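It is worth pausing here to work through a concrete case rather than discussing structure prediction in the abstract. The textbook approach is simple: state the sequence, then state the predicted structure, then interpret. We follow exactly that order.
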Amino acid sequence: MVKKIEFDEIGYWSEVKLEIIRRYAKEYSTILSKQPSLRHYYVDAFSGAGRHRRKGTGESVEGSPLVALGISPPFSGYWFIDLDAQKIEFLRKLIGDRKNVEVRTGDCNTVLHAEVFPSLSYESRARALCLIDPYGLHLDWSVLEEAGRAGTVEIFLNFPVADMNRNVFWKNPDGVDPQDIERMNRFWGNNSWRDTVYSRSGNLFGDEEKVSDNADVAAAFQKRLREVAGFKYVPNPLPMRNSQGAIVYYLFFASPNPTADKIVRHIFDMFRDTGRVT
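Step two, the predicted structure:
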């Protein structure tokens, strides 16, 4: 018996994110479509099944792949990647046979390095908008670094502070599972996150004590995107909050382009105070 697919349940903050992607992707595709010498791609690294369920009502909500495919003018091509084979098979059937769409089952950390980014060299005249929306700490820093150094890729990134706080940023770090520490190191690129989260100063016994909050961690990561990954423009990320006002994740944008930076700053500011679609 074939297992029935379970669509992800999303809250209003996720719908805000989808609306932000929709608004910027339209601007991006409009600008790039006016440059016939360039090809521009949409890349979705954690695409899911293409549909979600709205929390509380169960209504169907279009996921980011359908949002991207509905943008006009269209992108030159699309990449949809997900580790869940069942979700990818549903997505493949949902969008049908399109010659300019590549759908892959696999780990985006591998697929992006091996198949996608090599085709996006500056000399190739290709550009890409990449949505990296992991469920938690399931991303290798090397993906962000390669995207930043390419000079051809813009990213939206889900920075999962909820997963970090729940599994890594404990008051007593000695109790954290070593596998969660490794996940954090891979996401951050090394263990320098500890310098932001913990301090030994003022502690009689020299033990690490948690000293940072979510904003400190996000600011440190913003700095890494600029100074280590090499993205020239990284506006202040947008905190995405649940119905109780708690920050679930930060939505980052990073780009080599000043026009992109200006557009996204404007879009982020539209949602920064309320966190709701307007």
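Step three, interpretation. The chain has ten helices and twelve strands. The chain has a mean pLDDT of 91.
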